[in-house]
Amino acid sequence: MDEGNVASSGSTSRKRSRSSEGSEWKEGKEGGIPCKRFFRPLDPFSALPNEVMVHIFSYLTHEELYKIARCVCKRWYLLVSSPVLWKRITVKQNVPSSVLLKWLENSPLLKELSLTGRGDIDFVTNKVSRCCKRLESLKIENPGPNKLVRSVGY
């Protein structure tokens, strides 16, 4: 018998350790298939609690959250949608209006919004007035012939 193969011998049950991962192989009922509980997750982030993951995500920009992190897996998509990450939003002209409006719709806890170089201020302020009831600070910086800078506090 080859050492790499484990043969089942009827009703007898043996345990054999795999040296590569330290998992145990069981014969008998499982038929030599490693039990799920012995596998370590391939992704080290999968062992972290959601609260820790949200804290890690708080160091990313909103563009990074939207373009990259939410596309990794279903769990990350759900965590990126957490309203806690969307309390302060800083947006430049490179974010499309449709994306920004979606962010505002899904940000019930938004307190601070900073807009730079945007030509869609009317649409954005209309959406803010309808969706972001907790907004405390709105900063609009619109580069043009007379760089307009306004800051409004509620």
TrEMBL record:
It comes from the Eukaryota. PANTHER family: F-BOX ONLY PROTEIN 4. Coiled coil: none annotated. PROSITE patterns: FBOX. Pfam families: F-box-like. GO terms for cellular component: SCF ubiquitin ligase complex. This is F-box domain-containing protein. Residues 42-89 form the F-box domain. InterPro entries: F-box-like_dom_sf, F-box_dom, FBXO4, LRR_dom_sf. It comes from Callosobruchus maculatus. Residues 1-29 are annotated as: Disordered. Gene3D superfamilies: Ribonuclease Inhibitor. GO terms for biological process: protein polyubiquitination; SCF-dependent proteasomal ubiquitin-dependent protein catabolic process. Residues 18-29 have a biased composition (Basic and acidic residues).
